[in-house]
Amino acid sequence: MIVRLSEFDNCFYVGREHKSPPLTNKMMEMEPQSAPTPKKHSKKPKYSKFSQQELPAWKPILTPGWVIATFTVVGIVFIPVGLASLFSSESVEEASIRYDDQCLTEMHSENAVEFIQNGLTNKTCTTSWIVERRMQAPIFIYYQLDNYYQNHRRYVKSRNDKQLMNPASEGDTTNCYPQDKTNDSMPIVPCGLMAWSLFNDTYRFSVNTNSLAVNKKDISWGSDRSSKFGSKVYPKNFQVGGVVGGAKLDENIPLSQQEDLIVWMRTAALPSFRKLYGKIETNLEVNDEVEIVIENNYNTYEFGGKKRLILSTSTWIGGKNPFLGMAYLFVGGVSLVCAIVFILLYVIKPRPLGDPSYLSWNKNPGLLK
Amino acid sequence: MRSGRRKRKLHLSKLYSFTCCRASSFEDELYSQIGGRGYSRVVLCNEHGGNLESEVVRDYADNSVRSTKYTPATFLPKSLFEQFRRVANFYFLVTGILAFTKLAPFNAASAIFPLIIVVGATMVKEGIEDWRRKKQDIEVNNRRVKVHKGDGNFEYTEWKNLRVGNIVKVEKDEFFPADLLLLSSSYEDAVCYVETMNLDGETNLKLKQGLEITSSLHGNLSFQKFRATVKCEDPNANLYSFVGSLEFGDQKYPLSPQQLLLRDSKLRNTDYIFGAVIFTGHDTKVIQNSTDPPSKRSRIERKMDRVIYFLFCILFLMAFVGSIFFYILTKDDLQGGSMKRWYLRPDDTTVFFDPKRPAAAAAFHCLTALMLYGFFIPISLYVSIEIVKVLQSIFINQDIHMYYEQADKPANARTSNLNEELGQVDTILSDKTGTLTCNSMEFVKCSIAGVAYGRGITEVEKAMGKRKGSPLNHEQVIGSEPNSINESSNGKASIKGFNFIDERIMNGNWVNEPHADVIRRFFRLLAICHTAIPEMDEDTGNVSYEAESPDEAAFVIAAREIGFEFCKRTQTSVSTFELDPVSGKKVERVYKLLNVLEFNSSRKRMSVIVEDEEGKIFLLCKGADSVMFERIAKNGREFQDKTMEHVHDYADAGLRTLILAYRELDVEEYKEFRNKFSKAKNLVCADQERQIEKISNKIERNLILLGATAVEDKLQNGVPDCIDKLAQAGIKIWVLTGDKMETAINIGFACSLLRQGMKQIIIHLESPEIKALEKDGDKLAIIKASRQSVLQQISEGAAQLTAYRGSSQQAFALIIDGKSLVYALDDNIKNMFLELAIRCASVICCRSSPKQKALVTRLVKSGTRKTTLAIGDGANDVGMLQEADIGVGISGVEGMQAVMSSDIAIAQFRYLDRLLLVHGHWCYRRISSMICYFFYKNITFGFTLFLYEVYASFSGEPAYNDWLLSIYNVFFSSLPVIALGVFDQDVSARYCLKFPLLYQEGVQNVLFSWRRILSWMLNGFISAIIIFFFCTKAMELQAFDSEGRTAGRDILGATMYTCVVWVVNLQIALAISYFTMIQHIFIWGSIAFWYIFLLVYGAMSPHFSTNAYQVFAETLAPSPMYWIVTFFVVISTLIPYFSYSAIQMRFFPMFHEIVQWIRYEGKTKDPEYCHMVRQRSLRPTTVGSTARLAAMANDRRDRTTINRR
């Protein structure tokens, strides 16, 4: 609004406040309360602890007591937990056999890629391993791949959940390119790079010439079997023609029972990963000699990945990984040290109470001039 | 009978100063334009329905008004457009659209969903606000007014149905529904009184008068046959001009603003008027005038924008780095026909991953990455801030300590976007009257015929007495100040506006005084020379007055109390009851009111010309001393010296003075004046004012001095205390007032803005040389000399300051008057002036015009680049309020203008300390912590995504499930932040006021400095790194549970996400030190909600939940690994921050932390200790009573040491 300025610089009105008519004009935004009859109810704010921001509150500050207590408690809790984790982790027996290089015969060591891609070469290789400590069943068999990007976006997206679950959506191969259709335009089930690149090395075990049964049941998560892979969906046109990626699937077994596929398709988070291959249900005693026959089919040579075969037991905390226990111990230890340091600090250098010379603007008085 | 009346009226209107324009001026240039461009409006009065001619009228706007921003049709596009003007929102819109392409790292719905929530919430808010406006519009449009329906029938109709040309009847105390042409009123001569408070904030009544030709249209029936045509200017925004002509019968009559009744003003003191609708709806002048107030944004928000741009930079950098790696890796995949990562089929791929075109793939990847790392930008930040600010405003409005019982007015934060700015105010520019001082004037003293009367002691005198009194009882004095004010107003409580005690002239005793006739003239003048209107209370017979200004009311009341009761005003006369001292009876005297020479700020005086019952013509004049003494006749200077002395004393005591003088005119002289005056009055051009002034100037000469009046302008309750608090908080206070220097200085003393021993640097142009030049009248020379003088005074002041720099105890005050300010605000000098002013402890600008107030505000704002707050209550402060970073309006008694242009309205100045030191401090702290925290939580989350990319060959695959990603900001981390923004308190209100220096945290902006922002961001990066590495290392390869299954992407993602949710929520718990139930519920609730959500989401069909299907119920919850990893990662992540803040709290506490310590250690009751802390916080040159006390103590100490020596 253009304002005409009051002629008197200080022009006031005596005794108007009680008489002044209610402001009802609303041309411009005004006080919202200007009801036609403002006198009827007082505009006095109601008192409540909430509206006056006086709610009872817990106002902790980081006093020496709190700080020391916190660090001590963290230390006291962390160290036992760390010890327990570490102990459990150490109780796990684990054997790791790298075989991608071992299974290359001398003549192929120079041209590994050719070797692996050639369907005619014999890829069976045998290795043996002597049990150092007793392994309690179940003994889990893993294969471990390194430098394998199952978490690549192209790879992760290259599947079709509908097709995997629902036999009616057989033709739905969205996202699966280039492994969506065969050359004669038949839909591939299961489609996509992920299924196509299914790991296809196999292992056979024998102890003292008795072959060991490998249990491949229940190596995947139950929800995957029940809700993600259909029990009426059968592999079709899988790994036929074109470039063959990995393992072939038995077309008579529904996807929900193809546990190798299910495990493989639960993608790994990081480029080094283990996946469960199967379980050995018998104990392995010390000095048992385990002979392992490996079909070294899977091509990791091309991208420089490593392959390992892992035999491991498990405990409540899972497999063998001392990191967590060590980290717990480390952080717990650091906390205790912190607690001690703080105790010393508070003893040696008591705070000059309320010394405002710490205030940033007092340090630099020029600011306030 | 009829002709007789007309005759009389003719006669009177010749005499009356408001005589309407006569036909003679009709040939005036302006009027010749009617019908031409810009003057094309044609109004056919009283033509309704079916008339052919009304087609001309048809296309004028109807009388409904719309103040809403949107209509139902435009709401969607317009408000969406508003929303996406924000960079962040626009960014999210673009990424949302891109999410529908193949580029997206996640599914489109999850990307667009949070945006919809955020934009939707803001739009709902807009919609509600607009709906409120709509309701107001409906209310206004449906008000009812009587309108002529033909055949003399007037019926009620809604305002919105009014059409141009309608005849309406408006009754007493009703608003005018449109701009009306005044035809006739309940008064014979078609005058009416109008209150224009809603237009200009002035509370005085204005007189409007219809044309003589239409003034006889009295009864309803007389409109049966009435037809007229008005031709006038097109709608425009000028409230004070109107050009048009009325064709009535065969004659044309000119129209002026005098006949125009503006919409939104109100009919007062008149039973009814008839008017013709000229401008309707949006054509009315008041609506043409309404512009949106300047939209203000707070400093923090502006800085926040910069931080967001900074985050965008990081975002682009990360995307760019990622794309480079992606380029290298993708290119590597295919080397001369042999594939590397064959499982990705680089030989047969889309452009996004094509190793043959790695550059294109990288470019596309960059877009993907921008989408993925978008979590760096807190999408819900703006909407959260808006919610928080609205809630904060509600708290401000609800504060019972800022509620003013007497006026029933709570504080009212009219805009919520400046809350935190309240915590950063560096300089307060305050109006004086009505803000620092009460709106009430009391007649306390007068000097008549050189004798001083009046024994009342003013507040300022009391204050001065205290100042001079013993310093020991000072504390007590300060404490008792508000009480004494109450006492004086309540104790006597006799007559408002009158605090005059002197038995010499009261109760008729004045007849015995030596100059009884002068005294009689004196009070008679007070009773006649004014523009007040008496209002008789019919029950009690008491008379009250409506006056233009409270001093004027005080005069009339004083005259009444002495025995000269002004009782009646008509158009042409003023009647008084005079107490005849001889008989003791009341005698009615009627004075013919011949002319009123109105007051304005340049004339600084007003006069009336009256004819008394004996036929003598008098000119009665009252005005400021500066203009009056030079108009005194040689033979009228009998008491001049004495009076001047008294005036000086009064001014010293903080009183406003006016000089009263009169003059008898002989008939010839008056006739000559009258002719000239009415001629000048009839001019319609801009020259009119100057002409009138010239003529008035001529007659207001050779006056005979009667005496002077002194009126007290009372300090408001609690003002000195409040100023003291603000000063202790390190806020500079400038007073900008229209008062004269002496009054201003006195008020300064009363408010402790000035104190004894403070060096006053006074800049003025009252030096003899300049005065001499002024007499010569050479304007150029005056300007030159004045500028020179101001410049010199400023540099002298600066030199003084520099000289005293060594001894820090010396405080300076700068006092400058309006005249000098004109030059001091010149482009060349203003920086020097500002520099000088900043170095002074207090600054008082007196005699400043409203425009100067605004200019000074702008100078301080732009010169210091600090936050300025202007506080004022009157229409003359509007410029200042709008110019300042924050305008605080006092919702006092002087109209609504200041409040309407303010950002926050409070009822009393004394609430300012609470508003700033408590609410301002809290809001500043809340908002800045909240924003920092927002950045922290988003960086923590966003950076884990980036780190994961490093391990996913930068392919753009997110670590978390799509929907989890998108609702992070909306569900798992928003409520605790909002609780932080609304409820957090570092220290309670009591301590905020007890340790005002806390406020400096805001002024110095320590809580939102780049250092702090970057520290929080760094904290975010550290948290992200710790979470990511600990989680991945702990779950890397080995079996995840005793069943031997390993952790896939789903499990690692969910575990990391759990850690992030825990960490950011515990981080906020660590950062705040104020836990009510609300905080507990929000913080722990957010964490609990994460688990609940994970359960519910995991239970949905895998088609929707994808890899989060059953992830918690089946895999995470049964695994001890998950729980101990979470526990470990969460605690470890918080340890760095915890250690940092423990050290900082103990060894480098900020001021609020010191206060927290004091509270914690229970030392608040230890006065010495508190004093010590507070003392440290005092700056040596501060103002306010505490500082004054300290200065006195210093003085004493110095003196005793000298004595000892």
TrEMBL record, chain A:
Pfam families: CDC50. It is found in: Membrane. The gene is ALIS3_3. Keywords: Membrane, Transmembrane, Transmembrane helix. Belongs to the CDC50/LEM3 family. It comes from Stylosanthes scabra. This is ALA-interacting subunit. Residues 23-46 are annotated as: Disordered. Its main location: membrane. It comes from the Eukaryota. The chain crosses the membrane at residues 66-88, 327-348.
From TrEMBL, chain B:
Residues 481-490 have a biased composition (Polar residues). It catalyses: ATP + H2O + phospholipidSide 1 = ADP + phosphate + phospholipidSide 2. The chain crosses the membrane at residues 87-105, 111-128, 307-329, 362-383, 934-951, 963-983, 1013-1035, 1055-1074, 1081-1100, 1120-1140. InterPro entries: ATPase_P-typ_cyto_dom_N, ATPase_P-typ_P_site, ATPase_P-typ_TM_dom_sf, ATPase_P-typ_transduc_dom_A_sf, HAD-like_sf, HAD_sf, P-type_ATPase_IV, P-type_ATPase_N. Residues 57-111 form the P-type ATPase N-terminal domain. Its EC number is 7.6.2.1. Its main location: membrane. Keywords: ATP-binding, Magnesium, Membrane, Metal-binding, Nucleotide-binding, Translocase, Transmembrane, Transmembrane helix. It holds the Pfam family PhoLip_ATPase_C. It is found in: Membrane. Residues 899-1149 form the P-type ATPase C-terminal domain. Belongs to the cation transport ATPase (P-type) (TC 3.A.3) family. Type IV subfamily. This is Phospholipid-transporting ATPase. It comes from Stylosanthes scabra. The lineage of its organism: Eukaryota, Viridiplantae, Streptophyta, Embryophyta, Tracheophyta.
